[in-house]
Amino acid sequence: MITKFTLHQKDLASSWYNIQADLPEPLHPVLHPQTGKPVCPDDLALLFPVELIKQEISTERWIEIPDEVQKVYRLWRPTALYRAYRLEKALDTPAKIFYKYEGSSPSGSHKPNTAVAQVYYNKKEGIKRIVTETGAGQWGSSLSFGGACFGVEIKVYMVAISYHQKPYRRIMMETWGGKCVPSPSPDTRVGRNILEKDPNSPGSLGIAISEAVEDAVSRDDTHYSLGSVLNHVLLHQTVIGLEAKKQMEIADAYPDIIVGCIGGGSNFAGLFLPFIKDKIDGKKPNLRIINVEPTSCPTVTRGLYAYDFGDQAGLTPLIKMYTLGHDFIPPPVHAGGLRYHGMAPIICHLHKLGLVEARAIPQIAAFDAGVIFARTEGIISAPETNHAIRVVIDEALKCKESGESKTILLAHSGHGHFDMAAYEAYLDGELSNYDYPEKKVIEALAHLPKVPVG
Is 4 contained in some domain? Predict the structure, then answer.
């Protein structure tokens, strides 16, 4: 009985997989916020290095991973694929459950897969400083690690509620040389304006993005970096799925259902994009791909498919995506990485085409599942991942009812070692669910930019 499926470092992917080469219909263009016309590369040059801009719009199927990036990847990649025998037994299910575990990276999540690449391309272009936002702190930690690898200064605007809930994420960033401040902060015009209206604002990823973008455009030596949502970020994460396909072959299995959590979408897309090509090509037409989000921030399940800003202040280009409105500030759930008003255009596009599903899970139900997983598989998972584990358990129990032996693959985005306060609240019976804030969403959607939706 083999529990752990590993690859040799020689099996590390030499190229990222670009889904844009195989989409049945092309993505909607990103629009300039002033003109409403498609952005051109020059419009993005203030924020991103040329190579990342090229990757953002590329339709080449394979994009080579630079040797320097591969050398850093080898610190933790390839990551392991596990068969969850103990969970299967506890559930008394005929389902076969596998999970691809990204918690063995330096920062404990999938985020370094793109952080290392982004810092490398910025360094190559002569950029000395990068600014970014972070929710739960996994992205800020990972970019700080990337900055340490290539000698680039990093500043992180961390969503205030998570900054205070997870102080050791800040210490992790600072250990790698990064600087972390709570957002909204007094360091930017956007932050000062928000603090003036609400000194106790919990912050949001939209606000933190606004602060980071404002910071980036104010200095010639600085670029902005985003940890999810954008095409090039999802591209870099496909190392996860490329490895998983090889590992599933070793296990002599292929998933019937693939499950992962989505906040901006990079973790789950990184796993399922190399598999969804088989569905698009007709090789695996019945493959189900389930995107899981929190009921407190149900972007895909309850949002509007429209053009919207990626940030709260309206400084970014306009993206066609499911959105709860860029003014929407989600409740302060512990899954900080899932508190984003929008979603990766690639995931939204695939959902609109009917190629993937979406489901929303309450916070307590997610932690119910996370504790079951910890007590069977031994891994204390991130609150974000717990949402996906809930759906894996639900689907496995459906197999128990039907008697079907389906194969389920989980995108396990990382560990929850910095989330003990959330587990403490759950174990003490003090963890709260949050009602869907319908009124707030209606108000936020009313402020959608008036541009063509076509």
Answer: no
Nearest C-alpha neighbor of 259 from the set 415, 387, 373, 348: 387
Q: Do 265 and 365 share a domain, yes or no?
A: yes
Q: Is this prediction's pTM over 0.85?
A: yes
What's the CATH code of the domain at 136? 3.40.50.1100
Q: Residue 452, preceding bond cis, omega within 30 degrees?
A: no
How far lies 218's CA from each of 85, 143, 222, 410, 421, in Å?
Answer: 53, 20, 8, 41, 37
Rounded average pLDDT per 10-residue block, the chain, 454 residues: 95 97 96 88 90 96 98 98 98 98 97 98 97 91 98 96 89 97 96 95 89 93 94 98 98 98 96 97 97 96 94 87 93 84 97 98 97 98 97 98 97 95 95 90 90 52
Let me know whether 158 and 295 are in one domain: no
Q: Which two tokens stand for residue 38?
A: 């498609």
What pairs with residue 97 in β-bridges? 408
- Contact by Cβ (8 Å): 107, 145: yes
Tokens 């999540």 sit at which residue? 109
Range of the domain at 286: 67-108+237-445
Residue 383 to residue 200: CA distance in whole angstroms: 24
